[in-house]
Amino acid sequence: MNKFTRNVAAALLAVPLLSGSAFAETPPGVLVVAQNIDDIVAIDPAQAYEFTSSEIMANVYDRLIQYEAEDTTALVGGLAESWEIDAANKTITFTLRDGVSFHSGNPVRAEDVVFSFSRVVTLAKNPAFILTQLGWTPENMGEMVSADGNTITIRYTGDYSPNFVLNVLASRPASIVDRELAMANEVDGDLGNAWLNQNTAGSGAFILDTYRPSELLRFSANEDYYRGAPLMDSIIVRHVAEAATQQLLLQQGDVDIARNMTPEQIASLPDDGFDVGTYKQATVHFISYNLKVPELDNPALWEASRYLIDYDGLADTLLLGQMEKHQAFWPAGFPGALEETPFSYDPERAKQILEDAQVELPITVELDVFNFAPFTDVAQSIQASFADAGINFEINPGTTAGIITKYRAREHEAIMLYWGPDFNDPHSNAKAFAYNADNSDEAYISTTTWRNAWAVPEEMNQRTMAALTESDPEARNQMYLDLQRDVQQTAPFFIMFQGILQIGMADNVEGYVHGASSDLVFYRLVEKS
């Protein structure tokens, strides 16, 4: 970074970005982002579980294998230059790239990989379950993950598809941490956890220089990054909670990107000088029936309900710029996603289905919904269209925490929710929407099938687990496509939309990458013309 850029970047840290700022535009080598970052709880890869934290991981840390900025749908070698899977599909051997260093200057070694995986499992924080799916425990990590020279041997239990295992190893908690630096800052056996929640110890494209909670993130380019130095000298992410302030800062030239503007604000941006990036997100939005309510345990009711939603009308009006029509459990933007949308608003067809099945109508159903836009608006639209067919929704708005608690206890009747994968593998959502081996009240599991008391047919359970173990990637994707079609037709929930994120930016910004999840947000290719 040249002296001018350093000085101006330092000034940006010192001067609030408000109306009347001294800067009419940001420096050439600095990308300034306005974003609400108050969701951050942790930035240690062993603990980080928030959206903004995930973005930090993607830019500061590397993994053995990972999804990259050049193609967010392709799984490629990261710190590993190659890997081999044994014939029994129980072991993967990775060979590390030569000459890669952490930001500290310490070389990336196989021992760092072993340490990184072991500390996640040992600390047992929020995201640890992603790795422990492989049969890893604090007691067996010594035999499950081992190092020999520049190779790492990873063993796992269970009959898993190699793709599933690779996706687990490409997930956020599989980020590789500098062992020497972490342990130099260990306190009371915490494996550096407290220190790593204020600092970073990665090898990624950017170095986190400054982290002030609910205020600022500042990154500088890793000039020695093995994929090539980032095109920007530094990235400054300023915490700006108010969408209106973000819009003002963008239009004044005080920031280059505004991440949290409303669709109305996006639409009001002048054409001259600004662009809008539109990115599909991994959340799928749905309504579901709780089958513990006898009146709702009727497949004809489920089928008719699919034709009582004005998908296109809602997407083009209330949800414009926020969601688009999507009717499958795996979101578009990932391999194996079904993008067919077989259902449309057809109230006469719905009425005929109900009449043919001799469903006793009218019925009254309580619909739990988050108490903020656009959810309340969508609920009111759906209330009107369902009432025409004799299904009367009583809308029950509530807090996010209250509704989720009720849902987990199976105490709702109908509910409007959204769901996102925990990591980038279709099994993450297939298990939630197409698997339920034990529907008893005592067998709590964090899936929408169990929470809605849907005893999934055993044949579908078996197919879900078979897809998990399928070794051929194309065949595996086809199995998930078939599962999605069957869930579309037979489940007591109806998936309606997929989330969309619109981001306002100056028209001289190029190369910003925002994949379908927060794990796929990359700044390495950004440049300003």
TrEMBL record:
Coiled coil: none annotated. It comes from the Bacteria. Transmembrane segments: none annotated. GO terms for cellular component: ATP-binding cassette (ABC) transporter complex; outer membrane-bounded periplasmic space. It is found in: Periplasm. Gene3D superfamilies: Dipeptide-binding Protein, Domain 1, Dipeptide-binding Protein, Domain 3, Periplasmic binding protein-like II. One of its GO terms (molecular function) is peptide transmembrane transporter activity. Its main location: periplasm. Residues 1-24 form the signal peptide. Residues 75-440 form the Solute-binding protein family domain. InterPro entries: Peptide/Ni-bd, SBP_5, SBP_5_dom. Pfam families: SBP_bac_5 (PF00496). Keywords: Signal. GO terms for biological process: peptide transport. Belongs to the bacterial solute-binding protein 5 family. This is ABC transporter substrate-binding protein. It comes from Yoonia algicola.
